[in-house]
Structure to design on (286 residues):
C-alpha cells in the first residue's frame, strides 16, 4: 500500500494519505477480528498481544495494533491490576522495538474508546505509531531544567496522587474532561519505567478511566495518548469527550481551520468533578 505525505497548499497542514484504509474492518461486522480465532487473533491468545497493522496510515511496519485482552468487556475500567499492567508492558516493549528499528523522533501510543471517539472495532485495543516526523505540537520542547511537569501543579488542577503518579487536569484541556498522568521522576519513555512505576501507572490509569465513567454514570468515550520523545516529560493523557450526559465534544470548523481549541468548561470545574469521582472510587475500593 502506498502512503503519501501531502501538504495543504494554503496552510502548513500536513496529511498522511493511505487510501486503502477504507477497506479495514469496521464495528458491527459478523466476526470480530480481535477475538480468539478471528482474523488477527491466534486461537491460543490469553492476554494482550500486538501485531502489525494491515492498513497502516504510515509506511508498512511503523504501525502496530495492541489488543488488550480476549473479551470485549475488558476495557481499563473493568481490568484487574495484572491485566492492565500487562497492556502497559506491551506498550513499553513494542514501543522500544519500534524505536530500535526506525529511530523515530516520536513513538505514539493511543487508544480511541467508543465509536464517538473514532474506534472502528469495538474490541478494546490501542495502537502504536513510530512517527517519521516531529509533529507541530511536539516541537520546541521545554528545556529539561525547567520542565513544567516536574514543577508542582496548581492545587485547583490537582486531582489525585497515585503511587508516584500525579493526576491532574491540563489548564488548556483539549476536551471537556481531560486527565493527565505524569510520573514524579523525570521519564521520557514507557520502557524507562521500573516495576513500581508501572504498577503506579496501572492504578492511576484504571482509576482515571473509572472516574471519567462515573461523571455521567456510563462509559466515557475518550481518546488516550502517550507521545514519547527524547525531550518531553512522559505523560498519559485521557481526553473524555462527553461534556454533558447527552452531548459530545465535536471539533468545530474554527478549530479545524486554525488548530486552536475552544472549551465550554474551565479546567478548574473539570478538576473539581474528577476529584469527587476519584474520592468515590477510593471509598468503593477500600
Amino acid at each position: 500500500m502506498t502512503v503519501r505525505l501531502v501538504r495543504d497548499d494554503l496552510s502548513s497542514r500536513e496529511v498522511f494519505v493511505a487510501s486503502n484504509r477504507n477497506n479495514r474492518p469496521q464495528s458491527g461486522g459478523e466476526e470480530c477480528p480481535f477475538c480468539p480465532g478471528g482474523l488477527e487473533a491466534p486461537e491460543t491468545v490469553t492476554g494482550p498481544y500486538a501485531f502489525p497493522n494491515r492498513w497502516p496510515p504510515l509506511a508498512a511496519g511503523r504501525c502496530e495494533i495492541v489488543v488488550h485482552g480476549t473479551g470485549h468487556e475488558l476495557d481499563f475500567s473493568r481490568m484487574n491490576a495484572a491485566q492492565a499492567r500487562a497492556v502497559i508492558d506491551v506498550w513499553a516493549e513494542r514501543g522500544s522495538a519500534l524505536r530500535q528499528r526506525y529511530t523515530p523522533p516520536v513513538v505514539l501510543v493511543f487508544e480511541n474508546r467508543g465509536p464517538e471517539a473514532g474506534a472502528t472495532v469495538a474490541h478494546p485495543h490501542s495502537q502504536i505509531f513510530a512517527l517519521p516526523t516531529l509533529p507541530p505540537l511536539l516541537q520546541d520542547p521545554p528545556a529539561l531544567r525547567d520542565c513544567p511537569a516536574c514543577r508542582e501543579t496548581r492545587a485547583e488542577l490537582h486531582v489525585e496522587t497515585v503511587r508516584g503518579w500525579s493526576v491532574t487536569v491540563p489548564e488548556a484541556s483539549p476536551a471537556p474532561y481531560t486527565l493527565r498522568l505524569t510520573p514524579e521522576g523525570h521519564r521520557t519513555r514507557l520502557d524507562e519505567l521500573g516495576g513500581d512505576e508501572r504498577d503506579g501507572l496501572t492504578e492511576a490509569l484504571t482509576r482515571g478511566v473509572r472516574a471519567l465513567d462515573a461523571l455521567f454514570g456510563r462509559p466515557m468515550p475518550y481518546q488516550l495518548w502517550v507521545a514519547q520523545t527524547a525531550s518531553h516529560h512522559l505523560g498519559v493523557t485521557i481526553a473524555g469527550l462527553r461534556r454533558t450526559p447527552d452531548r459530545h465534544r465535536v471539533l468545530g470548523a474554527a478549530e479545524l481551520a486554525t488548530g486552536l481549541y475552544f472549551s465550554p468548561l474551565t479546567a478548574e470545574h473539570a478538576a473539581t468533578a474528577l476529584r469527587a469521582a476519584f474520592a468515590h472510587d477510593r471509598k468503593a475500593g477500600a
